[in-house]
Amino acid sequence: MKLSQETLHALALVVRVPNYDRSQLKPGMVHIGLGNFHRAHQAWYLHCLMQDGLAHDWAIIGAGVRAGDSIQRDRLMAQDYLTTLIELKPTETSAEITGSMIGFVPVEEENAALIAQMADPTIRIVSLTVTEGGYYIDPATKGFDSSHADMLHDAAHPSTPKTAFGAMIAALKIRRDQGVGAFTCMSCDNLQGNGDILRQTVTSLARMADGDLADWIETNCTFPNSMVDCIVPATGPNELKLVRSLGIEDASPVTHESFRQWVIEDSFCAGRPEWDKVGATFTDRVHDYESMKIRVLNGGHQIVANAGEVLSIATIAECLAHKQIGAFFEKVAKNEIIPHLAPVPGMAPSDYVELIKERFANPRIVDTTRRVAFDGSSRHPGFVIPSIKDGIAKGTSVSGLALAEAIWARMCAGQREDGSEIAANDPFWSELNSTALKAKSAPEVWLSQRKYYGDLVENRHFSGAFSAWLEIIWNEGVEAAMATYNRDEA
Question: Which InterPro entries match (predicted)?
Answer without folding.
Answer: 6-PGluconate_DH-like_C_sf, 6PGD_dom2, Mannitol_DH, Mannitol_DH/Oxidoreductase, Mannitol_DH_C, Mannitol_DH_N, NAD(P)-bd_dom_sf
